[in-house]
Design goal:
Two copies of one chain form a homodimer. By secondary structure, chain A is an alpha/beta fold. The first copy, chain A, folds into two domains: 166 residues, P-loop containing nucleotide triphosphate hydrolases (Rossmann fold, 3-Layer(aba) Sandwich), CATH 3.40.50; 144 residues, RecF/RecN/SMC, N-terminal domain (Glutathione S-transferase Yfyf (Class Pi), Chain A, domain 2). Chain A has ten helices and 14 strands. In chain A, the strands form three sheets. Chain A has a six-stranded antiparallel beta sheet, covered by helices on one side. In chain A, strands 8-12-13-3-14 form a five-stranded parallel beta sheet, with helices on both faces. The radius of gyration of chain A is 22 Å and the shape is globular. Chains A and B meet through helix 9 and helix 10 of A and helix 9 and helix 10 of B.
Chain lengths: 355, 355
Amino acid sequence: MLVNSIELINFRNYSSRKFQFNNNLNLIIGNNGQGKSNLIEAIQFLSISKSIKTNISLELIKSGCIESSIIAEITDDDSFKNSIHIKFNNRGKQIILNNKLLIKSSDLLKTFNTVYISEEDINIVSGSPVERRRFLDGFLTKTDFEYMDNLKQFKQIIKQKSKLLKEEKINRDILVLYNTKLIGINKIIIKKRRKFLEYVKENIQNYLENKFHHIKNKKVEIIYTNTLNNENDEKEMVNKEIKYRECLYGAHRDDFSINFQEKNVKKYMSLGQKRLISFILKLSEKDYLIKYKKINPVILVDDAFNGLDDQTIKITEELLQDSLQKIVTTTNKNKLFSNINSEINEIEIKENATI
Amino acid sequence: MLVNSIELINFRNYSSRKFQFNNNLNLIIGNNGQGKSNLIEAIQFLSISKSIKTNISLELIKSGCIESSIIAEITDDDSFKNSIHIKFNNRGKQIILNNKLLIKSSDLLKTFNTVYISEEDINIVSGSPVERRRFLDGFLTKTDFEYMDNLKQFKQIIKQKSKLLKEEKINRDILVLYNTKLIGINKIIIKKRRKFLEYVKENIQNYLENKFHHIKNKKVEIIYTNTLNNENDEKEMVNKEIKYRECLYGAHRDDFSINFQEKNVKKYMSLGQKRLISFILKLSEKDYLIKYKKINPVILVDDAFNGLDDQTIKITEELLQDSLQKIVTTTNKNKLFSNINSEINEIEIKENATI
């Protein structure tokens, strides 16, 4: 897949600007606060049909304006050219694909896919369990509609159950009924999460073995911890949930941890190392899409090289040496890809935006 | 204050290593995962007598060892030299100040103070309210013992109240009693938080006006949002808390937001800009200590320049041009302080640690 061009009208800090991209490496260069990430956000919007940064479309409209547009030409994996026009104002959002209004906005995913790698991915490794579940659910709901449905159902039951647990007199029978429903869906969610993580683990292992020769010991483990399984004592569970008046068991409380050389990455690794591991985690999304979904996504890399040492930056740049289209932001063009011979499309951004 | 030397024995990835520091700028240079942050963690330990990274002392002991030591010579603001020896093993932690066992470990703060600036400070700006309260409480408990006492009491009442709210039959009278107690303490906490934030605001404003000439509009606001104040309808509050069975009102739920040019920093600013603002937030801690507490802290800067453009890095480096002692980590010695003429003590670290 390719994004050939994108035009931003009253989007974030842009009044009106059109960008053209080449088929391989595009470097977006600019100082802090000029709008590099806003461009990446717009491209990502073309795929998931919402912003990665906010749920409130109005925040995307340039201050003082009433309507905003993203207009793009993309090429899908069958080499067909498509036009996408996304318009939003205070009445909502309209998506026009090849001049036809799209009813189900998630249909955009069938036409255009991206993998978004950013500085903030480090939170997958070092943040709270919420961040790790967001990583899993974010990717799986995008690629597996059965997962999406199950997760939606799951969340609904948890919501009902939460409400029940706040009532003065808790009806135990209804609680047990909810739990019975939850167990089945929970199983499907966990199975899919585990399978994806198994792939991720193998993938990290491969990267470390084939690319990082200076790292001697490379044993990687990913351990999924689930709060609800077959061994739970059902009665004890119910009692505990009634005592704390919270839904304590289920996929919404699960977590995973990454061990490297039998040491927990979150606890024992430096920020630079965590950044590297989270970078490879996101590359696994790309590899999974190519291998299992036969999709060639566009790779968006937003400020993801910060805090890496020179050797690691070099290897990380090499990891991006494939035939996929890449759009990469940086504050200094001399720092990145100086050793790479492939043609680079340099786009300078100077919009004098917020600061 | 100065840290003249520090010796680490079986601490994190160090078996045994001694470091000497000069009185102004010390640059700790090393690749990812060599132990730069571990050294900073040890220096910070000398001040707050616990780790900034973990509450579990055992995680600090080098793998395979049973005991760890930090031994340091420091100079306090009255130019007295002090020796600190901190020892920890699976039985606990011992702090020996000038060859005498220290009973109250918080007494170290009277001898040695640091301000710790790190890449992760960006979470103060872009993270959840928890991170912002941690910033406020972290600084205020360190510098204001009345605040520390009040916060401790406050947390205790919230804990009791939470427990009460989970009971099947909630005793309304006790709830109201707790709330009466809370209101008084809440007032003190908020007043001190607001006062500190007022200082922080003025300080950011000063920095922007005097140092960042390329930024045109510089209006900064910090807005503290409190959930419990005089206008709350007490009865309504109680009803709502009983319905949700949670402590919804009080300093433990408060937050603040930073506006720049009437735009919310968290929502509208780029990562680089947020990093800069969080950097200045932390410099405000330093300025506050000097101005109101007559303390000259040691400044620890751990990987805090990532993602800043060259111009901003230059200004940020200039902000660190004072007579305080500074210990700064970096992966590349050529990138930082290349334009500064003051004497730099370069310490290279290559311990071949975790990766």
